Amino acid sequence: MKNKLVLLFLGCAVLGYAQKKPAKNTVKIKPKSEFVAELMSKMTLDEKLGQLNLPTSGDITTGQANSSNVAKNIAEGKVGGLFNIKSVQKIKEVQKIAVEKSRLKIPLLFGMDVIHGYETTFPIPLGLSCTWDMGLIERSAQIAAKEASADGINWTFSPMVDISRDPRWGRVSEGSGEDPYLGSQIAKAMVNGYQQHDLTKNNSILACVKHFALYGAPEGGRDYNTVDMSHIRMFNDYFPPYKAAVDAGVGSVMASFNEVDGIPATGNKWLMTDVLRKQWGFKGFVVTDFTGIPEMIPHGMGDLQQVSALALNAGVEMDMVGEGFLGTLKKSLDEGKVKIETIDNAVKLILEAKYDLGLFQDPYKYCDEKRAKTEIFTTDSRKEARDIAAQSLVLLKNQNQLLPLKKSGTIGLIGPLADAKENMPGTWSVATKMENAVSLLRGIKEVAGTGTKVLYAKGSNLDYDETFETNATMFGKTLHRDARTKEELLAEALKVAEQSDVIVAALGESAEMSGESSSRTNLEIPQAQKDLLNALLKTGKPVVLVLFDGRPLVITDEEKTVPAILNAWFAGTEAGYAIADVLFGDVNPSGKLTSTFPRSVGQLPIYYAHKNTGRPLSNTEGKFEKFRSNYIDERNEPLFPFGFGLSYTTFDYSNLKISSDKMNPSGKLKVTVDVTNTGNFDGKETVQLYIRDLVGSVTRPVRELKGFQKIALKKGEKQTVNFDITVEDLKFYNSDLQFVAEPGQFDVFVGGNSNADKKVSFELTK
């Protein structure tokens, strides 16, 4: 029995670990500050710098960990964590090297981009945000953490909370849209889902909010490009979701690639120290993005030694892949360019994170092979993913109640995204097993049942340009390009259409047309698919467009010509079932847009909470007026506004009331509105409250989201919805960057989207 005891050196090394199952025994260790201080007192400078190093795992395979190059570095104490290594078997092998072969036996962090699920994949974050349901969003992160932790992962590089108002930027797909208030609620929900307020649990993982900061506002919508904005816009519009994640206790923060005030974020001391730590009180550690430190060299910030010192002195603790810390900080220390106190503080923060995760008590905490076999891609998790995905879909148009479809007759399913299971999980689904994803074709066939005939034709390729399609279907997300001519593909589609009662056209973007380094200047559906759609419309058969996208697209033509449009985003591994559930009315769509859909690319950036000008357009018909703020060739307003989304039923808003027309700074107002389901289906509605500050010391947006509630109403049911307004809802950062609420007049709007026209008013007194 003695040979089976778990022995720990410095409370962290598991010796004599030979059994296949991880040891369940843990040893009680000293309080965090004392434990970390004692451990650091035994560390050499090289070992300290090793804790700041986060390499990728390379090509480690099960059974080969000991012979890999990274294993040598781990044994020498030169690695603090690894990322992009997956599975309990591989992680256990590597962790064993750290806790048995390195001198101080310090366990590793294992990180992965668990962005919107693990093997059970949920809608892309932009789609997930359209549920407007914080409980569902938190639950998706909780399931992701459960699965990832069961497979050995203890750290996720999520949530991404970058506000973006320009859908040319491909990574809009990874965020929660354009609004700081909604984005803040989602940031909090995601952090709570991953970390569960208790990192000692074996099914919670360390979250990492990213990308700090302003990454979603690059010039021209081009990824990694320059960002330049005023501090007042930073604090009011772009910073709130990051701060919300910090307030929720997020354990780590990732630096962004872009510059802020002319200094790359990775080396920006004002950002990482003054704002993040001193103003917001962040207590965790900061990690760079992939090669973020050496990328400051082409930015023009110096050589590798200079930029590494710049990053450390700015407040960055961990170097992802760049190895600038590992290779240059010793020299910088000798030359007086960095201080040992700065290095020690960085090491302390990383060791504290490992302590909080319980890795010093049990380095194999996340290496339970039983969990790996029983808690990943389970029937229950898939069911929840299907339910959540269905609530992320946004019904944009439903002329003459074409939807829901009947489970009878013949349906013609046509389009390059119709039988494309590899694309359903969307971008950044690195742990997804694509073979497990459900295509729309499979979903429709199974949900429709045997009483419905389903015919299928591809109709077209993604695009006429084969090179473009290759670039848009990377990472195993092939659309199996068809070698037939466009005429042959179209002929087959028209034959299917001729035999069908209704056509479902599955069109739009492929999964990798959005995401990192997938910026676009043309946001329309590719021409090959537009030509297919127009040919289908000419048949005279009713057409439902199921639109796949990772960003708001320009669908002005389609909105005019197609009778029904369901925006499906990329809904995850259960996408086919979820979309079919909505198409057939088993689930009434309730998604609401969190990002404005433009009429044309020329309107970008476009968002609802814009400022007024001194020469606003005076008419509401979109008519051009000379010497007014408008376009000569386009209307000002978007195609679909923020917060928009239809249902198979209808909702009526009435009896909007406010408890008083005056409020003092310590008071509270109650706003009530009656919402009635006036249609023929049970349904869910997201009731939204917006506030406009009419006069301020600085110009204020035309309206700002300050509250929302998603309610379920039976057919014919009425519910009174209540909102509370306090002075906190009225605060903003003024020109001195003071967070204040200024006395004056305010308008309150309540409705089903950002164009809500039910209004009450009040005055904030001194």
From TrEMBL:
Keywords: Glycosidase, Hydrolase, Periplasm, Signal
Enzyme class: hydrolase
UniProt keyword annotation of Signal present: yes
InterPro entries for the chain: Cellulose_Degrad_GH3, Fn3-like, GH, Glyco_hydro_3_AS, Glyco_hydro_3_C, Glyco_hydro_3_C_sf, Glyco_hydro_3_N, Glyco_hydro_3_N_sf
GO molecular function, one term: beta-glucosidase activity
GO CC, alphabetical: periplasmic space
Example GO biological process: glucan catabolic process
Localization, UniProt: Periplasm
Record's keyword annotation contains Zinc: no
Reactions mediated catalytically: Hydrolysis of terminal, non-reducing beta-D-glucosyl residues with release of beta-D-glucose
EC number: 3.2.1.21
Domain Fibronectin type III-like: 685-754
Domain of life of the source: Bacteria
PANTHER family documented for this protein: LYSOSOMAL BETA GLUCOSIDASE, PERIPLASMIC BETA-GLUCOSIDASE-RELATED
Similarity remark: Belongs to the glycosyl hydrolase 3 family.
Name this protein carries in UniProt: Periplasmic beta-glucosidase
